[in-house]
Write a structure and sequence with these properties.
Layout: H1 3-9, H2 30-47, E1 49-53, H3 54-74, H4 79-88, H5 93-106, E2 114-118, E3 130-135, H6 154-185
Antiparallel strand pairs: 1-3, 2-3
Length: 189
Amino acid sequence: MNQAEVSQLVSKLRIRISPRHKNLRNPEGPQGRLKKLRQTVNALFKYERLELNYTLADETRGYAERLISEAIRHGDTHKPTMEMADYWIEEKQLIHKLFKVLVPRFNDYKTSYTMLYRAPKSYPEIVFPRSVLELRGNPFPSILPQRSDQRNFLHNVLLDEAKKAYRAEKYEEITKSLKEQQDIEVPDK
């Protein structure tokens, strides 16, 4: 099997994933790690925005991206995709949400389906880096402020013109006062 055929078997994700998994310590061992990841993926599909430790959020993001991309690629009639969704999503009504709500939302996306932001640290309490993991297109307000170009709004244009007129008037006053000072300093002969 050559490289071209392998790339047809697995869809390409739109995020970078480390080849080695993150070190998520759990007293239950590898099964506890997978259980925690399943709970987090489940919560991400349920609430669409989570605040987590950065390592857990980064690891969860990869699994959520893979699940959404496989659901978009194969749909709900593909048995392996349904088995994967059944394994990763514990609440069965969220499987319906995945195929009926999230797949149509992300069907035409050319970017990743999730966003990962680093959250600010609150120094005395939290020592681990925090982050916010969210699905794109969620109903919540944006985390990053929207920066629209506001200089062409009417009130900003009027204020800019008023500033220019004020400065021109002040420059004329300054040049007049400088000419008067020069005239006083230079005596007529």
